Amino acid sequence: xxxxxxxxxxxxxxxxxxxxxxxxxxxxxxxxxxxxxxxxxxxxxxxxxxxxxxxxxxxxxxxxxxxxxxxxxxxxxxxxxxxxxxxxxxxxxxxxxxxxxxxxxxxxxxxxxxxxxxxxxxxxxxxxxxxxxxxxxxxxxxxxxxxxxxxxxxxxxxxxxxxxxxxxxxxxxxxxxxxxxxxxxxxxxxxxxxxxxxxxxxxxxxxxxxxxxxxxxxxxxxxxxxxxxxxxxxxxxxxxxxxxxxxxxxxxxxxxxxxxxxxxxxxxxxxxxxxxxxxxxxxxxxxxxxxxxxxxxxxxxxxxxxxxxxxxxxxxxxxxxxxxxxxxxxxxxxxxxxxxxxxxxxxxxxxxxxxxx
Length: 357
Fold this sequence. Notes:
The protein is an all-alpha fold and 357 residues long. 72% of the residues lie in helices and 2% in strands. It has a two-stranded parallel ribbon with strand order 1-2.
């Protein structure tokens, strides 16, 4: 691989025929398979969407599908950016890319409030208690990302897809404990099925095609899911208490500041002796696609008749995009068995959704 003349520097540029690295050609290779991916997305949603088409407006469901699509590509770019790369700088620069998007919103909301309000990007002034909640969410998400990025770096995406698909189950359990939501028989059946297939992932190489020493990264992925579920539960409260644009803007800024602080304290002093950082354009796309995915998600939550549990389930359909990318681009193995696990978990979460109607 070429390093653009910077072989001795920790900031080498990684250039390879793999997708979404430095050259524009590799960036634009992704759309070649995009024509196949939407079909898999719609197939994954086929068991979920008909349940709600007569019970809720189409707009917020459509926004949820958009969010799931961008979230799936966010996971793909995350895997590409972390491939043989240092984790902390990828986290820092990707979160900074997302925060930079909202800087013009914050500035022009003070300078031209009427114009930004017309375009729907006005960020109102938030009280101190609101900023404390946004900072809390940033800390939770930063912790989830730390665990999640290390697991993404060391685990195949076709394994991570079923793991991440179980996230709604934990969110549902948290909602039952925190918000006193009750589960009916069908919901409990879905939880049991999802947990059963989730447990199957830890049985060893027969299911995962990996060595048992990788259980550490399975644990990291599981902890990431738990913290992401905690963030989703907090979202339900924040969207109803504060402006959603302000929440996403300040949350993005605070998250970027947290990771920049971690970079300066932990990674930068040891950058010459640790894993070399390779700049890739996919790192920027990680943050940008997540911003778009969250924008659609928070917008969907703002609808009066939207259901948080349904949106969480729909967003997890992004696992199908990630699984397809693992098969086409990353050439991962054990796809049949992992596909069965993915289908089982998606069936379980579909039962949870059906029981929520």
